[in-house]
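Notes from hallway chat w/ T.B., transcribed later so I don't forget. T.B. wanted the structure written out for a chain they're using in a teaching module, and asked if we could keep both sequence and structure tokens in one place. Agreed to drop them here.
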Amino acid sequence: MSDPLNEMICFDVYAANLAVGRLYKPLLDELGLTYPQYLALMILWEKDGRAIGEISGILGLESSTLTPLIKRMEATGLVTRRRDDKDERRVHVFLTDAGRKIETERLRLTQCVADATGLSFDEFVQLQGLLRKMRKAIQK
């Protein structure tokens, strides 16, 4: 009898997502971060001062989901929020020194995750490319 889950790519993607999440958890716990908070920091390290709407678009989260996450990050001193001078409805998020300092851990976390996958560098890059291609096709 065959396993019906072996025929479902969605299960493999789901199970891989859970495994990667479990891999990141202890690493991020050391930094006092959740995975979504880490993703938000990564976006801000790339370009500080982004609007909440821009961050939510990149992460694929609703602003109503992202706002409480950003507020918690502000409460822990990682970011500050400021209303746009020209449009009071827009809120921009800026890194604090503490938020910038965590970026020094980025390479270590990336290396730990890459090492744990059991993939070569080329396989890792290929897998990432295929997952992005699949995600973009599904989102169309």
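Follow-up for T.B.: The chain has one domain: 4-139. Might be a good example for the class.
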